[in-house]
Amino acid sequence: MARRDSAELNIVVRLSMVVVGLALNGVGIGALIQAGLGLGAWDVLHQGLSDHTGLSFGVVVILVTVAALIPWWPLRERPGVGTILNVFIAGIVIDWVLDWTSSAHALWLRISLMIAGVAIFALGQGMYLAPRLGAGAREGLMTGINRKFGISIRLSRFLIEASVLVLGIILGGSIGLGTVVFTVAIGPSVQLAMRICGYRERTTGDEVTGPVAAGAPGR
Prior knowledge:
- By secondary structure, the chain is mainly alpha-helical.
- α1 (about 1-35) packs antiparallel against α6, α2 crosses α3 (about 55-70) and α9 runs antiparallel to α10.
- It contains 10 helices and no strands.
- The termini are far apart.
- It holds the Pfam family DUF6198.
């Protein structure tokens, strides 16, 4: 009985980490949007689509996440409960943050929001990924391509995110200092957050979940 209670408590803790982590992802992205100094590759696309469709940023995030799950079936990726929660929570929180805040104008505040946004997003990613309850839709694309076609995680990540960024720029998404800071800082920051949250890598090399997740936000 004690062992069962411990297992139930463990899954409750892990699920709570996933939910809080995804919510922090949404807060971090909201801060980056309000900073107005540029977004990460996927969010450049989300913003461009939002501007062209009239849909809210959060709704676009949800729809793109669903679209990113479609190739999982031919790539033989398996979603987990974290994958399903990933579809909705961040997008809902992003819209909530944008509804209750406004764009920053003072440069010092914009830079502060940018730095805080990256830090909060990284902490959220660490909390989401550490419990191992399912990869994010975008992360699953990269690991699926790695297994299906033998393309390294790093190369598949680069090809996908470069394509997403170019499309987002074409659609008018926001790029700038924040894009550079996010791209450079997010990998090491997420790896640190994952370690703080108790994540331990199972293997080494290109197929390690830790570097994959750290290099590619699992939203």
